[in-house]
Amino acid sequence: MKLSGWGRYPAAECIVTAPRSDAEVARAIATTTCIARGNGRSYGDSALNEDNTISTRHLNRMISFDEETGVLVTEAGVLLGDVIDAYLPRGWFPAVTPGTKFVTLGGMAAADVHGKNHHIDGGFGNFIDWVDVMGADGSVTRASRTTNTDLFDWTIGGMGLTGVILRLGLRLKRVETGWIQQRTIAAPNLDAAMAGFETHHDAPYSVAWIDCLSTGASLGRSLIMLGDHAPLEGLPNKYRQIPFGPPPAKKKTVPFNAPSFALNRYTVKAFNAAYYHMGARKTGTDYVPWDTYFYPLDSILGWNKIYGRRGFVQFQCVLPDESARAGLEALLTRVSEAGQGSFLAVLKKLGTDTHRFSFPMAGYTLALDFPVSDKVLSLMTELDAVTLDHGGRFYLAKDARMTDTTLRASDDRAEGFANMRAKSGAGHAFASRQSERLKL
Amino acid sequence: MSSGAILVLGGRSDIGLAIAKVYASEGHAVQLAARNSDTLEADREDIALRHGVEVSLHEFDALDVESHEAFVDGLPSLPETVVCAVGALGEQEESEQDHAQARMVMRSNFEGPVNILAVLANAFEARGSGVIIGISSVAGDRGRATNYIYGAGKAAFTAYLAGMRNRLASKGVHVLTVKPGFVATRMTEGMDLPEKLTTDPDTLARAVFKAARARRNEVYLKPIWWLVMLIIRNIPEMVFKKLKI
C-alpha cells in the first residue's frame, strides 16, 4: 500500500503487515529487511520500507499500571492520546509530549522525542524505565539503565534501527489538573526571543512561534509561550468544576489537498504579521486546557493536506548554545531572502543530550516546514550548510532528504551507530528508506 | 446513562473487541465471550486499565448450541446489551467444493448466533429490557457468486433479527441489525479493499454505539453501503446473473 510520513513526501508503495503477537512480529522480521512503523507521524521516510513495513497498530494494549510509581507498561503501538484519555482523569500525565498526541509510544521512544520541557526534564527517553526489543533473530531482550544498557541507550533515539520495540515501561507524572497556566511574551526580534528563553529558563514548558518572514530589525520576532500545569489551588472557580479540562474540541478535517497557491509567501507573510500582532496584544497569563496548549493542530485532522498534493518537508536542526545566535540569524536571513514562508516555525531552547543517538543537545532548535518544490529542496540544502557551519545537527524524525555526507559532517555519532548495527546484525535485519539514504 | 454490562459474543474478533472498548469507555462493564477465552487475558487487562470498568472472560463456543443455556446462566449478571460478532468468512471457492466447510460457514453465521440470541432474547423479554445487536453483513442483501455461502448465512441472520425485532418491539427489547460493508479486520487482512467503501473497527464500533443509543433498527456501515446495496438489490435478476460483481 502507498505509504508516506506525515509530510506526505516521499511516498512509496510498501508491503505492510500488522502483527498481533510477538510470534507474528518474529515471523515478519524473518522474511526480509524490515522497519517498524507506529502511527506514521515522523515526517519523512523513517518508517518506510518497500519490502517489509511492520505496523504496530495491533500491538496496542496497556499491560499494567502502578499507582504508587506511576509506571505504565504498554505495548509499543499504544497512542499517546490513549494514555492521556485513560490516565489524566486519574491525575497522571505524560512526562514528555511532542506537539501531537497521535503518536505511538514506540515511535516516541525510537525518535526520543522532546517536548516543551526539554530544557528542564530532557527527552522522552528519560522517562522510559525499560524497553523490550526484538532483534534480528526474533529473540526479545529487555533493556534498561541497568541491564543491556548498550541496547537501551542505542534504542532510545535509534529510529527503530536496533530492532522492533515491542513493549515499554513508562513513568507518568502526577498532575493536579488538566489545565495549563499559560503566559505569552512578545519578543520583537531574535535577541529578545533568546533573552526570553534565558530569563524564563525555570518555566516548566516553553516554546516560541517565530515569524520566519520578518526581516531587518524584526528578524526573528517571536511569541514565547510559557506554561505549567495549574495546581488545583488557585484554579478559577469555573474551571474547578472540570479539573481535568473540557473534553477535546470536536475535530475538523481538512477534506482535500489545498491547491498549491493557497500557501505562498504573501499569504504566509500576511498571516504571520497578523498572528504576531494579535499575540502581542494578548500577552499575559491565562488558563488553557491541556489539549489546546500541547496539541493545537490535533484539532484539525489531516492538516498536512494544507500543503497540497506534493506534500511538505520539515527542516529541524539544533545549534549549540555558543553559536546559536549567529546560526539562527543566518538561517532566518536565508529563509526570508528566499521568501519561502514557513507556516509553522518553532524555536525552542533544549537541554543537554542524554542518549547516544538522540537529536537534542544544549542549544536552540529551529523547526520549519515548507511545501515541497525544487526551490525548497535547494533552499534546504543551503540551510544544511549553514547548520553545519555553526556546529548544529538534524532531527531524523523530521528528515526526508538529507544526504549521508551531511549527516556524518553534522554528527560524529552516526559512524558509531552504523558500526554498532553492523556488529550486532541489526544492520541486515532493520532498515528504512531513511537509514539506507543515510547509510546507517 | 445506563451502565449495564455488555456481553460480546465473538470477543476475539476485531469488531467485537472494538465495540467492547467503546461501551467500556462509556462506563459499561464488559463480558467477553469466546473460545479459549483465557487467551484474551491481555485484552481484558487492557480494557480494564483504560476504562476502569469490570471486564470478565467467559468460555463460549457458538457452535456448541447445547451449551448456550448453561452459558447464559453462568454469566455474572444478565447483560443489558448483547452484541453478536460471531461469524466466519471461509473461502468461497473452497466452500463450493468442500461441503463440510460450507456447512461450517453457514452454521457459524446463522445457527450458532441465532441459538444464543434466542436464549438471551427470552431472558431479556422476561426482564422487559435489553438491547440485542447483531453484526450481519451487506453480503446478505443479495447472493453473489463471489461470496454467497457466507452471504446466505448472513441473509438468514438478517431475516432472523428482523423477525425478533418485530416480536420484541412491544416487550421493551430493542434489536439492532448492523450491516457492515468492508471492514479492515483480521478477517479481511491482505485483501485489496477500496478505501472509500472501507471502514475500520473503531469507527464502526462508535457508529454501532450511537445507533444502539438512538434505537436505530438497521444500519449500513459505512452509510454509503445503503445506496450501493439499494442499487445491487434492484438490478433485475436476468441482468444480475450475468454480472461479475
Report on this model:
The complex is a heterodimer of chains A (440) and B (245). Chain A has 440 residues and is an alpha+beta fold. Chain A has two domains: 118 residues, 2-Layer Sandwich (Uridine Diphospho-n-acetylenolpyruvylglucosamine Reductase, domain 3); 225 residues, 2-Layer Sandwich (Alpha-Beta Plaits). Chain A contains 15 helices and 21 strands. In chain A, strands 16-12-14-13-19-20-18-21 form an eight-stranded antiparallel beta sheet. In chain A, a hairpin with a 5-residue loop joins strand 9 and strand 10. In chain A, helix 10 runs antiparallel to helix 11. Chain A is globular, with a radius of gyration of 21 Å. The mean pLDDT of chain A is 93. Chain B has 245 residues and is an alpha/beta fold. Chain B has one domain: NAD(P)-binding Rossmann-like Domain (Rossmann fold), CATH 3.40.50. Chain B has nine helices and nine strands. In chain B, helix 1 runs parallel beside helix 2, helix 1 packs across helix 7 and helix 5 packs parallel to helix 6. The longest helix of chain B has 29 residues. At the A-B interface, strand 6 and helix 2 of A face helix 2 of B.
